[in-house]
Design a protein that fits this description.
The protein is α/β, with parallel strands linked by helices. The protein is built from 5 helices and 8 strands. It binds iron/sulfur cluster (SF4).
Length: 162
């Protein structure tokens, strides 16, 4: 896919776990072959904002807890420890890398408190989802970068769903 000028391939920032990096909270990964292929083509940059924010892997799972409208997202882990500072630092650093790379689009892991776009868990660690964006997804959108999830990728690439 080319950019709006038609001259240059679109560049993507992608969730590192979708690239096969063992970056998830439980040390696991969620490799998606189409994401790996974009990296091999040199048009995608893998980033894990939670690692960029200084969190270890593995780490206790985190969720965004509901807060007042307009306030920065507050993130706590399952043990009740506030990890907001790490999440916001990682989001800023991830946006910095995305902009350096020239990314105009993102493909991020659905549901994550960092990378989720459109739906996230509700902050009760009960598995219930609510409308909302993860901290990194929100920061990318604020920077003008379009955010997709891995579920959107076949349509983005003009492929049939796998
Ligand atoms: Fe994947 Fe994003 Fe979670 Fe890192 S923060 S493991 S890139 S979903």
């Amino acid at each position: 896919m080319n950019d709006s000028s038609g001259q240059r391939p679109v560049r993507y920032v992608v969730s590192a776990c979708l690239a096969g990096v063992h970056s998830r909270y439980n040390g696991d990964r969620k490799a998606v072959e189409a994401v790996v292929a974009l990296i091999r083509q040199g048009v995608a940059l893998p980033v894990c904002p939670e690692q960029l924010g200084g969190l270890p892997t593995p780490r206790p799972p985190c969720e965004i807890v509901p807060g007042a409208p307009g306030c920065p997202a507050r993130v706590v882990n399952r043990l009740g420890v506030d990890q907001s500072a790490e999440f916001h630092l990682g989001a800023r650093e991830g946006v910095r890398l995305a902009e350096l790379f020239g990314a105009t689009r993102a493909v991020l892991k659905a549901g994550s408190p960092s990378c989720g776009s459109g739906q996230i868990y509700d902050g009760t660690f009960s598995g219930r989802r609510v409308p909302g964006d993860g901290v990194f997804a929100a920061a990318l959108k604020a920077a003008g970068i379009d955010v997709l999830t891995e579920d959107d990728l076949p349509r983005e690439l003009g492929e049939s769903p796998q």
